[in-house]
From TrEMBL:
<dbReference type="Pfam" id="PF02518">
    <property type="entry name" value="HATPase_c"/>
</dbReference>
<dbReference type="InterPro" id="IPR035965">
    <property type="entry name" value="PAS-like_dom_sf"/>
</dbReference>
<keyword id="KW-0418">Kinase</keyword>
<keyword id="KW-0597">Phosphoprotein</keyword>
<keyword id="KW-0547">Nucleotide-binding</keyword>
<dbReference type="GO" id="GO:0005524">
    <property type="term" value="F:ATP binding"/>
</dbReference>
<feature type="domain" description="PAC">
    <location>
        <begin position="123"/>
        <end position="174"/>
    </location>
</feature>
<dbReference type="InterPro" id="IPR013656">
    <property type="entry name" value="PAS_4"/>
</dbReference>
<dbReference type="InterPro" id="IPR005467">
    <property type="entry name" value="His_kinase_dom"/>
</dbReference>
<keyword id="KW-0902">Two-component regulatory system</keyword>
<keyword id="KW-0067">ATP-binding</keyword>
<dbReference type="InterPro" id="IPR000700">
    <property type="entry name" value="PAS-assoc_C"/>
</dbReference>
<dbReference type="InterPro" id="IPR004358">
    <property type="entry name" value="Sig_transdc_His_kin-like_C"/>
</dbReference>
<dbReference type="GO" id="GO:0000155">
    <property type="term" value="F:phosphorelay sensor kinase activity"/>
</dbReference>
<keyword id="KW-0808">Transferase</keyword>
<dbReference type="InterPro" id="IPR003661">
    <property type="entry name" value="HisK_dim/P_dom"/>
</dbReference>
<feature type="domain" description="Histidine kinase">
    <location>
        <begin position="196"/>
        <end position="412"/>
    </location>
</feature>
Length: 423
């Protein structure tokens, strides 16, 4: 009952009391009636204050508060429900949810109402509300209205808009997950950097050890083959320089700004890598073919890093052919201009190839096709190529070898520096 309705009912009752009092003739009866009237008025003031308090609370609550009969017809709703559910009292009072809301919303409301009445206890559920501003998520608490005889008369419900709360919870959860990923990535980067240094340095050291063993063999010959020894020592010196370059290139790779870039002859890098790996190529019975374009333009880049890319690709190709016994182990290195602005460097092998289904992730860190591999070499290669504005890709049918190539932009190279490099 609204406050105006309450006041109207009381005014009518007061008129009736006044009429009864006027009809009383006996003074004693009239005095007794006056006492009763005073008690009624005192009780009325108490009820009026309580009713006003309850009415004020209900009408000014941001929550949607409502009551329904057992058949689902509304007997009360506050201003909060009008605003939250985009309805009016005139639309709802005496009607059911099916008369007011879309069918899917009404079915949801009615199902939760019935559940509360059947259990006879407070129930809690999440419900949807459609408004002009969009869908809203409500947390609804419903309790059955039970008569003194213990019969369920209907339900009373309070629904609170939790849309923003859920949105905030989701944003917070995503932020925590993002922070966790960033922390994991930082730890992974530290691990990758540490492992990459060990991985990259091990290669030239292995080459030095291999060439050292070969030199010892030639020293034991009578007479020693000095020409071969000279060539081996040259390769050892080259590998020592390579080890030093590895430290420099990895250090530059993880810096935000790299000041060590300059004009680079990729053909010269390819020749140097093949010379450095001569011992491994020979020991593995790998034949080599080169097709290095004579008109290949210089690249503006970091020589040590690009050498590391070619070295890794050639080294991987040698490893890939280790199990090849039914055909010639052939390594092919080629360079060519793709257009005026880019060049292509490719390394091909005649090994068993790469499963086409794995081509998309072989450049990811810690993904490897080798039994004892760490999965860092190609990941570092991709990082280096990307730092140079290029792209690294692989192709294979999974049967007849693999081709790994990278495309680099030519960039702007100082003419005087270019002449010095080419000579």
């Amino acid at each position: 009952m609204s406050q105006p309705e309450f006041e109207t009912h009381y005014a009518a009752l007061k008129r009736e009391i006044d009429a009864l009092e006027a009809d009383l003739a006996e003074p004693k009866a009239r005095k007794h009636f006056a006492d009763v009237r005073q008690r009624i008025e005192t009780l009325y003031e108490t009820l009026r204050e309580n009713h006003l308090l309850l009415h004020t609370v209900l009408e000014n609550s941001a929550a949607s508060i409502y009551a329904k009969r057992k058949d689902g017809r509304y007997t009360f709703l506050n201003r909060g429900m009008e605003m939250l559910c985009n309805v009016t009292r005139e639309q709802c009072l005496g009607r059911t949810d099916f008369d007011v809301f879309p069918i899917e919303i009404a079915q949801q409301y009615r199902s939760n109402d019935v559940a509360a009445m059947m259990t006879g206890k407070l129930s809690e559920s999440e419900e949807m509300s459609k408004t002009p501003a969009g869908d809203r998520l409500l947390l609804s608490k419903k309790v059955p209205l039970i008569s003194d005889a213990g019969e369920v008369q209907g339900i009373c419900g309070i629904s609170t808009d939790i849309t923003d709360l859920r949105r905030t919870e989701r944003a917070l959860r995503e932020a925590v997950e993002t922070l966790q990923r960033e922390r994991d990535n930082k730890l992974l980067n530290v691990e990758a950097a540490t492992a990459s240094i060990a991985h990259e340095v091990r290669q030239p050291l292995t080459a030095i050890a291999t060439n050292g063993d070969a030199a010892m063999s030639f020293l034991e010959m009578t007479p020693p083959d000095l020409n071969e020894l000279r060539a081996i020592l040259t390769r050892i010196i080259t590998d020592c320089h390579h080890a030093s370059e590895v430290f420099d290139s990895i250090s530059a790779l993880f810096k935000k700004v790299d000041h060590s870039r300059g004009p680079v002859d990729v053909n010269e890098i390819a020749r140097g890598v093949l010379q450095s790996l001569y011992g491994q190529l020979r020991d593995h019975g790998v034949a080599t073919e080169t097709e290095l374009a004579s008109d290949l333009p210089l690249i503006d880049g970091h020589q040590g890093q690009l050498r590391q890319v070619v070295f890794n690709l050639v080294h991987n190709a040698i490893d890939a052919m280790a199990t090849t016994t039914d055909k010639t182990r052939l390594l092919r290195v080629s360079t060519q201009p793709r257009d005026r602005n880019t060049i292509v460097v490719a390394v091909e092998d005649s090994g068993p190839g790469i499963d086409p289904g794995r081509l998309n992730n072989i450049f990811d860190a810690f993904v490897t096709t080798k039994a004892n591999g760490m999965g860092l070499g190609l990941a570092i290669c991709r990082m280096i190529v990307h730092r140079h504005g290029g792209q690294l890709s692989a192709s294979s049918d999974g049967k007849t070898g693999a081709r790994v190539q990278f495309v680099l932009p030519v960039g702007l190279v100082d003419t005087a520096l270019a002449r010095n490099v080419s000579h």
